[in-house]
Fold:
Amino acid sequence: MRNNKLRIWSAFLLTIGLAIPLLVWSIQSLTQVPACGDQLDSAIHRGVIARSNAEDMGSGDSCGGRGFYGLQYQCVEYIKRFYGVAFGVESELWRGNAVDYYSNAEKYGFVKYKNGESNIPPSPDDILVFSSPTSVYGHVAIVTAVSSNTVSIIEQNWSRTGTANLGLSYNNGTYTISRRGTYGVLGWLRRPQIGWLSFKEGNPGIPGDGVFINAADAGWYTTFELILPIKLSEFNDGFTVTIFFPPDVQIQGLGFNITFENINSWPSPCWRAGSFATSTWQTILINGVKGFVVNFPQSWILDWIAFQAQSLPACNLKIEDFFIVALELYPVPYNHTYFSTLDAVSILPGQNAFPSAIKMP
Amino acid sequence: MKRIVLGILLVLAGIVVSFTASIFNHSLAAATPKITWAPGKLSESVSPLETKSLFVSFTSSTDLSDVLIRVVPELEPYLKTEPSIIPTVRAGIAISVKLTLAAAADAPLRIIDGTIQLRSIKMPTKTYARPLPITLQIGKKFAYENFSFLYPTFGRPSEEVVKVEAGNTKVDIRFLSATGEDYVSQFGFILYQNQNYLSLIDWFRQNVDLTGMLVSMGSFSLQVLPNGLDVLVHSGPIPREHLDQYGPVADFYAVTPDRAVIIIMSKSQENEFDIHGYNPEAQKSLLLAILQSMQF
Structure:
């Protein structure tokens, strides 16, 4: 009898002894913040992990100090790292706080859509920009999925899971993402499909989207300057340029130069600028818009580099030094009119290369 | 009798001493040179971690020897002169003095009024008239309407971007980047109209601390600064329950002494304070020093 009581008491104490640490561990694991730099739950999009700002979560402090894409792990660091890693964009050069991304959208090649006023819904990979009257610098996140009534996002320095779902509504032809705490959504930013270019004169988007840009002025030809210069060394089979004009632009003949230079040598005696000029083109139809296609063979690039290297031996000029910086357009035959408006332009490696998602005729 | 004689002698001795002193003083006054500085006064600023030099000169109306150039104690931590002793000064000949201004990383942001004085090494407590008045500002002054503050630029060109949105003023302070290509945001704040003149705690509770956890759980603690600002300083982790529901918070929330304006202040999400050698604790102290320099 005594032995039985002893057994019962032992079992009871053993159970309590095991249960209490287990309970404490469970509570801790639920409330504990992941260590600095650890993945937030299973927050990952296109292979880019959202990381923990640990005890600094939700504040202006950054547990991981300075990294390649900025202060780790602020919200801005994630969107820069996302575009750098997933799309190869030189986003480490982007400047600004979260809320500035909305006003600087065009500068970095994004098209912006205002929350509550846009008839274009958010889409995966878009940047979502938040602002709040009690936040100096706002918040940013990346859209991972969109359904008829929800926008899913991935982020740093807010939720401890690194993900969240926001309400999406469609009324009177426009999309609205609901508020989140003390923050509202300013809008979403979309980078046109890789291969489509953005210019200092504006972001023309993709063919047939109804967005055009105008050059600030026009001489005997019109210049459009790239926001992000393209390295000539990225090409090993030349490249293809496709230009789209608004429907009302009458094209009889098209002449254009692709301008490139060793931008990092400016100003020095080794700085050189050049251009490939052509007025030979073929046409294609994309999204119902006529495009003019020109192939630039690799031999043109190599011959030009070789000639420059020979002319300036002391400069040790290499293909890696040169970048495509601008596009110059003029009508052929020349008739004192200008092509000052563009619908879209793509430059892609290879011959007869077009952005992949576009259905070819 | 002896006492009377002693008294008379003491009175006489007093008269003699007074007379001698008055003659000595008179001769000293006659020999006192007049010092003229060029420029006649100086107003300069220097930021923490910055060093800069400039030249001033003075002339004396009489010949002087063994002149000591003295910087008053208030300015001494920030101002050095070269030379500090001049063996001979000829009357009417300008003497050039190099001033080096420098402020340490932890120098408090403030405005100091002081002087540079010329003295004789032989009589170091006497100053030749007149000294050079100097107003030294530690940090760059930003002023907008009736509001101003000082901030460190670390010797870099800076710009202040002011936007007025929905009646609130937003200020962003930017420094030229190391590459010199663009200005990088460092810190900023919103001047928020406190319509109902709420206390800081009440305003915070109604607008930010909506769960009531931020103050009660030590995420923010209240401080009163010498310039009269009440400040809630971010001082601990933000509770998950608050963060999930309401989102990230600013570093500081303050109210002016008259409760008319709430100041919401944050480090920029791309600030470069670490590059200038400020760890997170030092960054907090620096931003508090900026708040402390605010005037309304």
